[in-house]
Amino acid sequence: MTKFALYVSLHAKPGKEKEVADFLRSAAALVKDEPGTITWFAIQEGPSSFSIFDTFDDEVARQAHLNGKVAAALMEKAGDLFEKPPQIHQIGILADKLPA
Fold first, then answer.
1. Residue 44 — pLDDT band, cuts 50, 70, 90?
2. What is the CA radius of gyration of the chain?
3. Which CATH architecture has domain 4-92?
4. Residue spans per domain, the chain
């Protein structure tokens, strides 16, 4: 069972909402190269509110993702795209339903 996850809250600067959405769509390609990332979702929660939710089987994979290309690109663009730094929450999963 997948037990480890990240939830990242993102708040776009005014006028940067489309750029944030485009950036998140483009990040999906980078995650495909991460064998330890089980699932990855880019979510728009409101007009300027976005998040990322991803899951991992172990802490090693989660840390590899946090030190990987997507995280680096996110932090590189943070000052330009977001009102405040991304809020990264390392969370545990109690139960899941994943495709077989």
1. very high
2. 13
3. 2-Layer Sandwich (3.30)
4. 4-92
